[in-house]
Amino acid sequence: MGDNQTASSDPNRQLSTLSWWQSGPAELAEWERIEQLLAAAPAGAVYDPDTDPVVRAEFEADAAAAAAREAELRELGTLEQAEPRAGDEAVRDELTR
């Protein structure tokens, strides 16, 4: 940012601020939820998302949605028509884990 430019006129800063206002409350709530989990855990406990029921439910919901989308594409016959590209398997694995 140049000397004559203020933070409020910087489009990247404005976008960052807008992103915070859109996701900030949810992000803060998530950190507060994790803080509560750790406060209720034994001393020295470390947060593990693999054992967090909320995170597990999100992963399961994402996997179910991905499977439903894949089934719908198979029904339409469009999945078989698509040519695989580099990274497709990694993306599919990430979506369905």
Features:
single chain, 97 residues, mainly alpha, 2 domains, 4 helices, flat, disordered N terminus
Textual characterization of the structure:
This protein is mainly alpha-helical and 97 residues long. It folds into two domains: 9-47, no CATH class; 49-97, no CATH class. The protein is 69% helix and 0% strand. It has four helices and no strands. It has helices spanning 11-40, 53-76, 78-81, 88-96. The chain is flat and about 50 Å long. The model is unreliable at 1-7 (pLDDT under 50).
Task: Provide a compact summary of the structure.
By secondary structure, the chain is mainly alpha-helical. The protein has helices at residues 11-40, 53-76, 78-81, 88-96.
Helix fraction by DSSP (H/I, runs of at least 4): 55-70%
Mean pLDDT: 79
- Termini distance? 42 Å
**Which structural category fits the helices and strands?**
mainly alpha
Number of helices: 4
Low-confidence stretches: 1-7
- What fraction of the residues are assigned to beta strands by DSSP? under 5%
Number of strands: 0
Overall body shape: flat
What's the alpha carbon Rg, rounded to whole Å? Answer: 21 Å
List the helices and strands and how they pair.
Blueprint (H helix, E strand, L loop, with lengths): L10 H30 L12 H24 L1 H4 L6 H9 L1
